[in-house]
Amino acid sequence: MDLLEYQGKQLFARHAIPVPSGQPASTVEQAVAAADQIGYPCVVKAQVLIGGRGKAGGIRVAKDRAEAEQHARSILGMDIKGFTVHEVWIEEASQIAAEYYASIVFDRAAKAPLVMLSKEGGVEIEQVAEENPEALARLHVDPLLGFQDFHGRRLAFAAGIDADLIRPVGAMLAKLYAAFVAEEAMLVEVNPLIVTPERDVRALDAKVTLDDNSLYRHADNAALRDPSAEDAQEQMAHERGLTYVKLEGDIGILGNGAGLVMSTLDVVALAGGAPANFLDAGGGSKADAIVSAVEVILSDEKVKAVLFNIFGGITRCDEVAKGLIEAFDVVKPTVPFVVRLDGTNDVEGRRLLAEANLPNVHTATTMNEAAEKVVELAANAGAAA
Ligand code: GDP
Ligand code: MN
Fold first, then answer.
1. Do the Cβ atoms of 159 and 135 come closer than 8 Å?
2. Ligand 1 site, CB within 6 A
3. Rounded to an integer, what distance in angstroms lies between the CA atom of residue 269 and that of residue 250?
4. Ligand 1 mean position, distance from CA 165 (Å)
5. Closest ligand 1 atom, residue 205 Cα
6. Residue tagged active-site, from 91, 120, 183, 189
7. How confident is the model over 54-86, as pLDDT tens digits?
8. Where are the domains of the chain?
9. pTM of the model
10. In terms of Cα–Cα distance, which of 281, 274, 279 is closest to 251?
11. Which superfamily does 98-222 belong to?
12. CA distance 342 to 320
């Protein structure tokens, strides 16, 4: 789950990371009231889950009440790269002497958190990494050892931070690391990390991605979930307890077991198709879970054909077949299905399907055959439409 900038800053504040004070607002009136309270000059910042707000005109300094009102009016409702601004964050204006960059991400290949620091903040860090890679200091932290003071100093030296700021910047990184661990984040990014004319270091921006799978341990973070900001299908799947990820293509996919679904996506891609989703019905899926999954898959209007790839272990193929038959009764799909049932009770499952004689349901015995068939059906449907 991605947090809005101000939610990230509030999370930072809980970990004693210095951030400018501010208030969220979702109407012009609230924004002006907040600005009056914070004082002038203040900054009106669009709250959307996308970067580059500054360039898009979503961040403006207001020197008085009239400007605060004017900026709030123009920013609320603004579209930034396809995201509508529903909220602004009114923040005390900061004096900026320098803009740095700091982040912590998981480096899966190294199996360790990677801490990055650069003196070239404020701009797009991808550009710095490409054009001037030595300006981006990088250091892996052994997760068992944790972030030590020397890590901070080493990074600050490597990034060429001024001598008097090596300790404060190192301390800032230590706090960011503590927040990263305590909140079970996947990403913590501060761009820019600013130095004020008084040589104070604070986070002027905050990008935080939390691990969805850990939210049950963090009630306060879980409460920040905004269903309206989520994709409609993903939201529907989430409510039904399904593991579903929406993708760009037009072939709906259902399988049991994450590994099998991942391979199914690969095989469909290899056959020249584009999967519309990842959906893992999980082990031991009963008929009602299958009905629920079919509804989620078909609620995506892009779907032109569906592939069921079931390898029965704990999951019984006859239960899947029953679920599919029931789903056809409830949902009445208009797109073709390809079903591959293999494993526990597959003979019974295939018999049930044959007996039900569902319209537009094709069976396949191997995964490759199923993938080729569904790609062909989707292409035909596309040509016919
Ligand atoms: P982003 O463009 O979405 O990454 O938004 P940021 O929060 O990083 O802001 C972009 C830029 O706006 C920063 O790099 C700053 O240069 C500028 N900015 C943001 N807040 C202030 C502020 O309080 N004072 C000043 N002078 N500039 C600010
Ligand atoms: Mn930024």
1. yes
2. 43, 51-54, 59, 61, 93-94, 96, 99, 122, 191-192, 204-205
3. 11
4. 21
5. 7
6. 189
7. 999 999 999 999 999 999 999 999 999 888 999
8. 21-92, 98-222, 232-380
9. 0.77
10. 274
11. ATP-grasp fold, B domain (3.30.470.20)
12. 11
